[in-house]
Amino acid sequence: MSFQNPVFIPGPTNMPEALRRACDMPALDHRSPLFGEILQPALAGVKKVLKTELAEVFLFPSTGTGGWETAISNTLSRGDKILAARNGMFSHRWIDMCQRHGLKVEVVEAPWGTGLPADCYEEILTADTNHEIKAVLATHNETATGVKSDIAAVRRALNAAKHPALLFVDGVSSIASMDFRMDEWGVDAAVTGSQKGFMLPPGLAIIALSPKAQAEVESARLPRTFFDVRDMMKAYASNAYPYTPAVGLMNGLKQSCDMLLAEGLENVFARHHRIAEGVRAAVRAWGLELCARTPDVYSDSVSAIRTPEGFNANDLVTHAAAKYGVAFGVGLGEVAGKVFRIGHLGSLTDVMMLSGLATAEMAMADLGLNIKLGSGVAAAQEVYRSDIAIASKEAA
Predict the structure, then answer these.
(1) CA distance linking residue 246 with residue 229, whole number of Å
(2) Whether 285 contacts 236, CB under 8 Å
(3) If you compute the radius of gyration of the chain from its CA atoms, what whole number of angstroms results?
(4) Distance CA 22, CA 201 (A)
(5) In terms of Cα–Cα distance, which of 302, 227, 244 is closest to 272?
(6) Residue 88: how many CA atoms within 13 Å on its side-chain side?
């Protein structure tokens, strides 16, 4: 591998130099007033990215998985019933965590490559007249398959069923890259991490809890110590922390939010969509297909690309790393060996993406796939030039 080349995995993502420097800071006494000057702007910035005025944000030294555990352990009790769909590896892992915590999970099996079945959720929630279901899990962006689900539709299902269940959303590979509307969608727990859309190293679990979710904290009976938000809230009130914080990462998060908000969230989302559209155009030019089955569920942060029957997609990832020093993502779970993944989120430009597509073409050609060199790159170039073409026509 080469540190000179960008990575094209769905996280950790490429890190802007300004953020790398923000994380690389001298030791700081986290009990001094200086810590509050990092903590409070970071919390406020995350709230803006999540588009929430109501939720409380918590930053734990952990990853998205720790964020999942924070959400369930602070709001639920052993034996509580959960509703979740399994449509990929990461929805599967959250379900597994709930089961290990003694929660009863009603699992809706959905084909990998499809989004969350909101209509099925509505049917199950409507039938739950005793309101035994305490929470609904929803993976906004299934990183293993490159599938985006409609969280607003899940909220509509809850509302249509007149069901009081909490709505928990895994936004690990969507938040800060794709539109996320916590208050508007009625999300009660939003979970993400530092290493994807926020363009930072791994190490921070970022969780936001709605007032409704916070109201469950005292009555929740699942064990929690490190992930207890009560300790965090008490410390935040005095610009402190319940234990040693990852100060450098928090400083990076403060700068990351400033960077995202300066670009403009809608511009950030439009950039991700444009880059993703170029990748999708390249896939079509190669004669290949996405794991995501329909355009309405195409992810703007990662594409899982199916390779021909009998071809081990993991070989492509290994070859690209060994020969060209470029990282792509392997397939996971049910699609292991059947897809390779191109991450197109975080600190990425059209030009950077073209280099990744060119590398994928070379690797596929090297391994004997019927790929015409330059075909996918040319298709993506047409997408990335489209704004110029439109401007030229308008000027004429």
Answers:
(1) 17
(2) no
(3) 21
(4) 11
(5) 302
(6) 23
Cα(138)–Cα(168) distance, rounded to whole angstroms? 6
What count of residues does the chain have?
396
Please tell me whether residues 218 and 365 are part of one structural domain: no
Residue 297 DSSP label: G
User: Rounded CA gap, 121 and 111, in Å?
Assistant: 15
Of the candidates 375, 392, 352, 339, which has an alpha carbon nearest to the alpha carbon of residue 272? 352
**Whether 305 contacts 283, CB under 8 Å:** yes
Which neighbouring-strand residues pair with 61?
204
Cross-strand bridge partners of residue 340: 305, 330
Residue 57, both tokens: 């944000």
Q: Answer whether residue 324 is part of any domain.
A: yes
**Residue 5 CA to its chain's centroid (Å):** 23
Helix (H) or strand (E) holding 212: helix 211-214
Helix (H, G, I), strand (E, B) or coil at 137: strand
Chain centroid to Cα 56, Å, comes to: 19
262, 291, 319 - which closes a domain? 262
- On the question of pLDDT at 389 being above 50, the answer is no
Element (H, E) at 278: helix 265-286
* Rounded-to-integer distance, Cα 13 and Cα 18, Å: 14
Domain boundary among 203, 229, 262: 262
Question: Percentage of the chain with pLDDT > 70?
Answer: 97
Write down the pLDDT at residue 396: 43
Q: Report if pTM > 0.85.
A: yes
Residue type at 247? V
Q: What is the distance in angstroms between the CA of the first residue and the CA of the last residue of the chain?
A: 47
Residue 7 lies in a domain: no
243-301, pLDDT tens digit by residue?
999 999 999 999 999 999 999 999 999 999 999 999 999 999 999 999 999 999 999 99
3-state secondary structure of 85: strand
Q: How many distinct structural domains can be found in the chain?
A: 2
Closest CA to 304 of 272, 336, 273: 336
Residue 58 vs residues 154, 241, 264, 296: alpha-carbon distances, Å? 24, 11, 23, 32
Q: Considering only CA atoms, which of 174, 181, 178, 149 is closest in space to residue 84?
A: 149
User: How distant is the alpha carbon of residue 229 from its chain centre?
Assistant: 22
